[in-house]
Amino acid sequence: MHLEQLRYFLSVARHRNFTEAAREFYMTQPAITHQISALERELGAKLFLRTTRNVSLTRAGELFLEDAKRMLDLEERAMDRLRQA
Question: Reduced to 3 states, what is the DSSP secondary structure of residue 28?
Fold first, then answer.
């Protein structure tokens, strides 16, 4: 699991849309989809329910959402502490 994948996951969850998340990171939609699929494979769980018109979090995705936020918050705090040292 890479921190960038967590950022992509949070963006898709926030936008409820892969294309909008891709725009946020100046990437293509297939690239974001590929990264989310790789994350899902690594975690062994589907994070999103995808239809042609809608994207929503699965129960696993809802649970992982809070952990992903905490992991990125921890990374930010660690970087801040190092800058202050």
Answer: coil
